[in-house]
Write a structure and sequence with these properties.
There is one protein chain. About 55% of the residues lie in helices and about 10% in strands. By secondary structure, it is of the alpha/beta class. The strands form two sheets. A five-stranded mixed beta sheet has the order 3-2-1-4-5. The chain has 14 helices and seven strands. Helix 5 packs antiparallel against helix 8, helix 5 crosses helix 10 and helix 7 packs across helix 8.
Length: about 350
């Protein structure tokens, strides 16, 4: 009975194997290719009956190896990198990290099941990467336009500073400055504004095209998620990416709340009994839960009544939002495990 551990990198993976008493049987390095994955698995199984393998970085450099092991039926455990205290004590090298991964898997300190690869959620994740970068670039372009208007020469600033952003971008997009007068600050500023306005409009077109692809994809993967109050395509897409193609890998709704950074952490001392915000977890998923909370606080009567009652009990707004995130995480978890929306009750 042996346990394996793998430290993954871009070009090569380092593996270590332990026997059932925790004795190190050896370590070896393999290329990060399909042939290398097969050789690594054969090397691990050559030492005995392979029980499980702990892999560090299953979502990055170890994604291909994790998919190969899952197809081969190997029990796989996701391992976090050693903390700083451990690294100071035992040093840092690929064989050391591989052995640490094997020991974490053998001792049960690492219990996370990696996401499966190659499904529809993987396609959703790729499209969301492109959309998120386009949204960030468009926001940067908009801020740069505003900054250029503020510092523009006085006549140009007077003409542009009162325009709303939509009208400002449309105006700048149609300007035709004299390219032979770029030494003039007003002409150069207007030329820069035109370039940024065209970039803004191009990014808006890209976002619209990606939204047209994302909406039917999210609705196909999990229509039940879109029926929740305050959940639209963008929020649902992020929650689906966080859970992965195999949301059943999350053992409970409490585990999902911890993954999203929405599980309360005790912060009690002496006579003070309280909980605090969780700063860990997937921060993008946490932001998605926050957007749901903001939407419900504005439009949902139940949520507004809950917030009012908690306020009269002395809770701060931050604590109320923390509680609401936890409740919403429970609803989302149920929808993730039951993607088909519940049928409407029959009418007589």
């Amino acid at each position: 009975m042996v346990t394996g551990g793998v430290d993954t990198h871009k070009d090569a993976h380092t593996a270590a194997v332990l026997d059932q008493t925790g004795r190190l049987l050896g370590h070896n390095q393999f290329p990060a290719t399909q042939k290398g994955y097969a050789a690594l698995l054969a090397w691990l199984r050559g030492h005995g009956n392979l029980v499980r393998v702990g892999v560090e970085g299953t979502g990055v450099y170890g994604a291909g190896l994790a998919a190969f092991f899952q197809q081969a039926g190997v029990e796989l455990v996701e391992v976090d990198r050693p903390d700083r205290k451990t690294r100071r004590w035992q040093g840092k090298s690929d064989p050391v990290d591989a052995e640490a991964a094997a020991r974490a898997a053998q001792a049960g300190r690492a219990t996370g099941t990696p996401k499966t690869r190659g499904g529809r959620v993987d396609a959703l994740r790729a499209l969301r990467v492109a959309r998120r970068s386009a949204v960030a670039a468009r926001a940067d372009a908009q801020r740069q336009i505003r900054a250029l208007v503020v510092t523009a020469p006085s006549p140009l600033r007077t003409r542009l500073q009162s325009l709303p952003i939509t009208a400002l971008i449309a105006y700048c997009h149609t300007r035709r400055p004299d390219l032979t007068q770029t030494h003039d600050p007003a002409v150069a500023t207007l030329l820069a504004l035109r370039v940024l306005a065209r970039r803004h409009q191009q990014l808006s077109t890209e976002i619209d095209e990606l939204d047209a692809l994302l909406e039917p994809l999210v609705a196909t993967i999990n229509p039940a998620l879109l029926t929740l109050n305050g959940v639209a395509t963008d929020v649902a897409g992020q929650l689906l990416v966080t859970a992965g193609d195999n949301p059943q890998r999350l053992s409970s709704e409490a585990a999902f709340a911890m993954l999203c950074g929405a599980a309360p952490l005790p912060a009690s001392s002496g006579r003070t009994q309280r909980h605090r915000l969780n700063r860990g977890g997937d921060r993008q998923a946490n932001a998605a839960l926050y957007r749901i909370v903001c939407c419900r606080l504005r439009w949902d009567p139940r949520t507004r009544a809950y917030a009012q009652r908690r306020t009269t009990e002395g809770m701060s707004k931050k604590e109320i939002i923390r509680c609401l995130k936890r409740y919403i995480a429970r609803e989302v978890y149920i929808a993730l495990l039951n993607p088909d929306p519940a049928p409407l009750p029959a009418t007589t």
